[in-house]
Known about the structure:
By secondary structure, this protein is mostly beta strands. It has one domain (9-53). 13% of the residues lie in helices and 47% in strands. It is built from 1 helix and 3 strands; from the N terminus they run αβββ. It has one helix at 9-15, and strands at 19-21, 24-36, 39-48. It has a 3-stranded antiparallel beta sheet with strand order 1-2-3, with helices on one face. The radius of gyration is 13 Å and the shape is elongated. The model has no long low-confidence stretch (mean pLDDT 85).
Amino acid sequence: MGSTAYASASxxxxxxCGVLCDDTLLEILSATEQQAFGKPYLYRLTLRAPLAQIx
Length: 55
């Protein structure tokens, strides 16, 4: 995250509009991180598809 204006990935995910996957913008519902030796190594995102695609 050092090359961006965000202090951490958590801040980035909180400010993001969503995640683009196969031309579909998915809303970020939550983001959690896993740490090893005091450093984050994995971010788990919970995403939601647009309501128009939920059947």
